[in-house]
Write a structure and sequence with these properties.
about 525 residues, alpha+beta, Beta-Lactamase, Heat Shock Protein 90, six-stranded antiparallel beta sheet, five-stranded mixed beta sheet, 13 strands, rod-shaped, disordered N terminus
Length: about 525
């Protein structure tokens, strides 16, 4: 391609292409015209040279017959009067020069070539001159004895010698140079004229396209739907019409969007107001619920504790009187009362969590002391389902600043669940420190939990088996309260489990309460 680059305008690219094409064509035409003119001039000069040398040969017959230089001078002088003839020579039949004038020189080798042509021809050609030679023959031969010294040719004429002239090419070269210069100047003049005409024509032809491009750019910069003038060639008018149709469609769509946006803003405002009202209502309901649960828990726990105290007093009196059957009934009543008290305490804890009344009370304690205290509480629960309890203390027993009561409550809940959902199996509690966190891992060989239920078990009042006839009892509050306590202390609870093989709950808390819980990859803990 002659034009490279896409940043220049179409008119400039076309104009550059046309300028190059016109100048190349003008140069080719000038060279061709000059060459043709030179060839024609050369042929004319060549023809004139042949005529001059032939006339000289005809006028020199008498001079050669008589071998008189005086007779030859008249013919030679006439020839030298021609502008391009600069030298003349006459040679007899023996090749000896009879007379020569002007600028003409030769050597023996050249002379042999000059005197061989049988008709007028150019015997030497260089940049500066031509050497033209023509034979001198006598056509009408008389029967005279003094002509026997000349050679007789095949046509019966006598060969008398040669006429040689030197033709200068100076005028021909000047003419050629002038022709080339003039033709080139004329070609350049026409090329400039054509370029001007092409520029004016292209400017007029591309003006509608430029206007359309400026309209599009203006619309792009301003964001307005600017319409273009439909003008120019058929294709440009079609493009402008399609652009205007697109602008019209965009304008209608924008109007429609403005209408929809106005309606949407109104609807959003209405929905926001409704959601705000619903949120306020929900918050009021939650606060009311929390207050009710807290109040009812206090109201229920006080008489229940009194009932449990009376049951214990009656049980002691019956034991003293050896009424063991009645003692067993009181034991069942006391066990049910303890279960009810545990439920009431869970509801009270939940109410405190939701109302924001729960606070973290930090105290410094030993990691292994917490683990040993847990063993004392949980071992009786583990023996109820004939489970083995194994405790692994941390290799590093360093002080830790935590809320001991909430930590014990979380771990007791995890261990209690392990004891409840494991029968004749093994329950492990191991403790270790890693990445500035302390870990308590509670694992069992119980029924396990399916992965789809991992989040359900941490929801309030949610259990995997929520039916009335479920095998395992519980309120579904323990794990929800445990996770809430763990998050309050800057940690969390993770879970790994396989149905039929057991579960593993991990409570991790920062050694320093200011440690961000985000330093623990919970996903990796859950996926094992």
């Amino acid at each position: 391609m002659l034009i490279v680059g896409n940043k220049s305008s179409l008119r400039k690219q076309l104009l550059v292409f046309l300028i190059l094409s016109i100048f190349i064509l003008s140069l080719i035409n000038s060279i061709t015209a000059g060459w043709i003119a030179t060839k024609q001039s050369s042929k004319i000069l060549e023809h004139q040279s042949f005529q001059i040398v032939s006339n000289l040969a005809q006028n020199s017959i008498l001079s050669l017959l008589t071998e008189s230089q005086e007779n030859a001078n008249d013919a030679i002088n006439q020839v030298l009067n021609f502008n391009d003839v600069v030298g003349v020579a006459l040679f007899n039949a023996s090749g000896d020069p009879l007379v020569h004038k002007g600028r003409i020189e030769w050597s023996e080798n050249q002379l042999h070539e000059w005197l061989t042509p049988q008709k007028a021809s150019i015997v030497e050609d260089d940049r500066e001159h031509w050497i033209v030679s023509a034979p001198i023959n006598l056509q009408e031969i008389r029967d005279e004895g003094n002509l026997t010294d000349f050679d007789t040719l095949e046509d019966g004429s006598l060969f008398l010698g040669h006429a040689v002239i030197n033709i200068s090419k100076t005028s021909l070269n000047n003419l050629t140079n002038n022709l080339f210069s003039n033709i080139l100047l004329i070609g350049l003049g026409f090329a400039v004229l054509l370029v001007w005409l092409q520029n004016a024509g292209l400017k007029r032809l591309t003006a509608p396209l430029v206007n359309l491009s400026e309209t599009m750019n203006r619309a792009r910069r301003s964001g307005e739907h600017t319409f273009a003038n439909i003008e120019g060639a058929k294709e440009l008018r079609q493009i402008a019409g399609n652009y205007n149709a697109m602008m019209k469609a965009l304008s209608k769509q924008e109007e429609r969007l403005i209408e929809l946006n106005a309606g949407l803003e109104s609807q959003v405002a209405i929905r926001t107001k409704e959601l705000t009202s619903a949120r306020d209502t929900a918050l009021t309901a939650v606060r009311t619920q929390s207050e009710f649960l807290a109040n009812i828990s206090h109201e229920l726990r006080t008489p229940l504790q009194a009932i449990m105290g009376y049951i214990e007093l009656v049980r002691e009196e019956l034991e003293n009187e050896a009424l063991y059957t009645q003692v067993d009934d009181l034991e069942s009543a006391l066990e049910s009362s303890n279960r009810l008290l545990s439920l009431i305490n869970s509801i009270l804890d939940l109410a405190k969590c939701e109302s924001g009344e729960t606070e973290v009370t930090l105290q410094t304690t030993s990691i292994n002391n917490i683990t040993i205290e847990l063993e004392t509480i949980i071992r009786p629960l583990a023996t109820q389902n004939r489970n083995q309890l194994r405790i692994s203390l941390s290799d590093i027993d360093c002080p830790i600043s935590i809320d001991k009561e909430k930590t014990l409550q979380v771990l007791i809940n995890l261990l209690s669940n392990a004891c409840k959902f494991t029968s004749e199996g093994r329950i492990d509690l191991r403790t270790f420190i890693e990445n500035n966190h302390v870990y308590w891992v509670v694992s069992d060989t119980g029924i396990g939990i399916h992965r789809d239920n991992f989040e359900i078990i941490f929801d309030k009042f949610r259990q995997i088996d929520g039916s009335v006839k479920r095998e395992y009892s519980g309120t579904g509050l323990g794990l929800a309260i445990s996770r809430h306590f763990a998050e309050m202390m800057g940690g969390n609870i993770s879970l790994k489990s396989t149905p039929g093989q057991g579960s593993e709950f991990t409570l991790y808390l920062p050694l320093n309460p200011n440690t961000a819980p985000a330093t623990i990859d919970e996903t990796s803990l859950q996926n094992g």
